[in-house]
Amino acid sequence: MMKASLVPSAPPDQAQRISALDPQRSILVQAPAGSGKTDLLTRRFLRLLTEVDDPIQIVAITFTRAAAAEMRHRILSELEKAAGRATSDQVHDEFSMESLADRALARSHSFGWQLLDLTSQLRISTIDSFCRELAIQQPIYSGVGNNLQINERPTDLYRRAARLTLNKLGDSHQPELSDSIRDLLLWRDNGWKELEELLVKMLAQRDRWMHKFVLSQEPDWNEIREWLERPFGNAVRSSIATLTQLLNQVPGACDEALELAQFACEHGRGELHRELAELAEFPYGPYDDSIDLENARSAYLCLANLLLTKDGEFRQQIDIRLGFPKENLDEKLRLQDLIAQLAAVPGLEKQLAGIAKLPPARYSDEDWQIVRASFTLLRHAAGELKAVFAEAGAVDFVEVAQIARQVLLDEDRYPTDTALAAADNIRHLLVDEFQDTSRRQHEFISALILAWPERTGRTLFVVGDPMQSIYSFRDAEAELFGRVKDVGFEFSDEESFPVDPLRLTANFRTDPQLVFSTNDAFEKVFGEPDGSGIEFAKAEPARSSSAGNKKRFELHLQFIPQVKTGSANDPESIRAREEIKVQRETARTSQVAELIALIRSHLDRVDAARIAGKKYRIAVLGRARTALAPIAAALREEQIPFRAVELENLKDQPEILDATALAHALFNPQDRVAWLGVLRAPWCGLSLAELHTIAGTDDALRPTAPIPELLRDRLDLLPTASRKAAERVLNAFAFMPKLRNSLPTASTGTLVQRIWHLIGGDQCVNASGRANLELFWKLLDDLPSGEQDLTGPALDAALEDFCALPDPTTSSECGVQLMTIHKSKGLEFEIVIVPDLHARNGSSKSDLLSWFERGIAEPNESGDLTEFLVAPLQFKGEERGKAKTWVDNIRRQRELQETRRILYVAATRAREELHIFAQPTYKSENGVLTLLEPRNSLLATAWPALADEILDSFDEWMHAHQGSGADVGLTVQQLAASGESNLIVMPSPAQPTIIRRLPEDFHHSDSINTMTASAESVIGLGDNNLYQRHEGGLFSRALGNAVHKLLDDLARLCTNLDWHEARNALENFRPRISASVRSVGLSASQAHEITSKAYECALNASQDPYGQWILSQHSEAASESSWAGIVSGDLRLVRVDRLFRAGLEPLLPGDGALWIIDYKTAHTDNLDPTLVLPGFRATFAPQLKIYADVLRNLHGTDLPLRAGLYYPRMSLFDWWEI
């Protein structure tokens, strides 16, 4: 057992932190916000390095690339610090970071690991990367070979699979599928497009619903129905059992109610109580099957209808309307007496009212038909998707995870041989952000543990915070944290792997005064149990307070009137509604202005911190992106720079709208709307009047004539400046055929970017716009059908998946940032502002099926640890069925539970100050104002903590208005209108439209002739401007990919073979390379040509001294290596063709420098290659500079780095210090 004395400066939870470093214990750590989770993980990893024989025996898994990069960076940074410390400087506290790093580095030296040189031994990755690592060990499962490329935006693949599936309607070879499609189309009023969209959405979430029965080729539908109905039956059985216990406290109550119902039927109200009255006896159970259980539910529902009002309360009034005439006093008194006795039983009224909310114990035949049809459709769609993946040569993350689970567990859920081999090499497993795990990821981790041959000497270290579990939309299950804490990781054979729970309490992030404020607030927010099992854990401040006595938490309020409902059209009603609308809008505008003023008050400190090289970050965190849009607009108007992190849609940015119009117009001259957009864009800037001159409808021929034709005919009608701008556009478009002839295989993005550049598009955008456009060009390149997709919805659909990039000129370390609360998780800011706390929570859209999977307290008879709730979508135009309503309500309850945690995450991002903005609503009745309790919002969630302060502020606000003699019904401003006149709301004056246009004398430095010469002389080289593009297009990209793969294969072959043997062995890869080339859409002849050229390049490299030197074994050598790092405050993901340590110059011995090599397939025609190399270097050097910056962040700024561009087609190598 480890022991240590606590030093005076130790955090309040130091004992727990020391316990967490015990390498013999498996531990689950609850690490609240600001508790130094990454620091603890780093210490644990360093401590474990002193225990293992090989560093690859330690595996750390997290859920984001940024978190994995940060962990790797912290560990390597501490090891590098240790390497630079003198022996005399080494500390003696064995649990300090310095001591742990010193010991880990000593272990590395003792065992010859060379951790600082061979960093790939540190197995730190995302769970997706780890799954892929396992999946490629069994390529037969993937169907796409051992490359297993991941498509991170696979919506198009889902859509392709959905269409292939739905096209089987009427297929006589697949009658069950055809009938299922027909049933679903009829159910949804023949909404083919809707069904396709529902299917696309379901395929994206298939890891959540794809249970074993879904994939069965010969399903037993009766058994499946029984399994799916079990959760409904369990809910009904449990509720009836509780209700029966309560009713038994009044002996004979049910029989008495049955007799009274029969009496009511005989006296005129048969339609109310017939179902209850017709029972021979009241069903008391036991209930042998779902039919008996459903009959019992119906009986208790009838009982509730007799005894309760529609509001779920015991009846107070018994009369003829209920079937009890005045003259039958005895029966009326009997029912009153029965209700009185039942009302005296605590909890009975609520339990009886709850019967109405229960689902049916079994599906109706109609519902079951739709559930069965849905799963039939989903099974076939999942099969089509696998075929689509194989055809595309890529899969999504879901598929990788499913393959990995197949690799780990056989059909009987026992570890496979591959799993045993993989797990045997893992002595210690660390899992970060465990509160964000889904059930499938939890099963994956459990399968790894289950595969350990023996568990002695192996540990699991799990870190997370259930209070920060906010990703239910990604299927994160907050309840799993508490489950593992209580019983460990459970296996299907009822075994479990226990962990010791620890809880950290120190908060190193937040000012002590703010820590106390948030503690007080969230003790109240989390005070009432919500069914999630998550309780609030108080934090203890572990940092000193900042100077000054300023307020750390501030609530900013604007009170707004309740929206009046109704459709009355009398002048007074219209006036009242318009008045309220103006008040609410004015309050919103006023609050945005207050928020901007708050930001401006901190800008001096932002500037001071920037000058001093420190951090000062102001974050505006919205529940939804819509809450941040008006703030972004106001910041732009006030000219305050800010970073919008995944806030605005890429498709809505002005530069993207212009570029999209250009792309459509280039490939479809008949697209009049696109052409008008091109002429309106700032490179041309025609006014609306000028556009009307060209394309107005007063001429009968104009509506159908192409815009280019009209433009040429009417150029002389335009003013000089506009005519010159339009001529420049026409000339650029006229150059398009020549450009295509000179670059026959150029990609769509390359062609559009060329024309955009020629007409002056690059002169019309700022740095942020340029970054967005670079993303747009790549998106055009990735369109599956190239330019053909520009004539349909494919481009618009692809743009939906992208957000505009943050302003690259604004630092993430100093300044203002706007992002959603979900995006802010894991970050910290000096000032946090949360706007629109009163905004209503959004509602989720319907899926093909409503489903929900939840844990159960004890495994059922099948050994299941969860139950799967499924209900069908309702018939088009009808209300939801009971089953769907019940499942949706359970999901909704889970979402409401999460709002507490979302609020907690937002509040705990703050280091110094937290500001919350809200607009509580009041109602006015007879001149009396009453504050309404908020519903379905973050303000409703925070109400237990904020209600007293808000109510006090409301009272002060009313008194202030009353004292001033103002009408308290007008919150911010009052419109002058007499009591007898109608309120007239004047529209805001129209703002003049300012046309942005390039100057009249604009002339681009790159003439058409220059561009043509460049295109014809160099294949693979773009312009020397910001938009470096691959001119060779699809052909050249396919060639480049093939060459990269072959050089990677060659590097691996030559580790065990001489060069002659490696060249011969390389020939075995030709079929795979050819198939890979064909998969991108090239013809067989093109694939043959590319494969031959790729082999020529690889053979050149194997015989060239520089090529042999690059591909040979070196210290820390890696091919196609990927990693992430922070550069200028931004996460950069980089992939390097070849990385290794070698001498300071090529071909020289030693390992003093780290070499970064990029392969380039560019070549020259009729030019001296040595004259072209400087141009190539200028083109590609910026990208290598990014690689170098990431490496220096990982290894230190003193790292000697060399960059090199290797051209296997020309057998040339260009290198330089970087």
Describe the model.
With 1218 residues, this protein is an alpha/beta fold. Among the domains are: 14-130 and 410-504, Rossmann fold (3-Layer(aba) Sandwich); 250-344, no CATH class; 650-799, PCRA, domain 4 (Orthogonal Bundle); 1008-1217, Alpha-Beta Complex (Lambda Exonuclease, Chain A), CATH 3.90.320.10. The chain contains 45 helices and 30 strands. It has a six-stranded parallel sheet with strand order 3-2-6-7-1-10, with helices on both faces. It has a six-stranded parallel sheet with strand order 13-21-18-15-17-16, sandwiched between helices. The longest helix has 31 residues, at 571-601. The model is unreliable at 1-8, 965-990 and 1007-1032 (pLDDT under 50). ATP binds at residues 31-38. It is an enzyme of class 5 (isomerase). GO terms for molecular function: 3'-5' DNA helicase activity; ATP binding; DNA binding; hydrolase activity. Its EC number is 5.6.2.4.
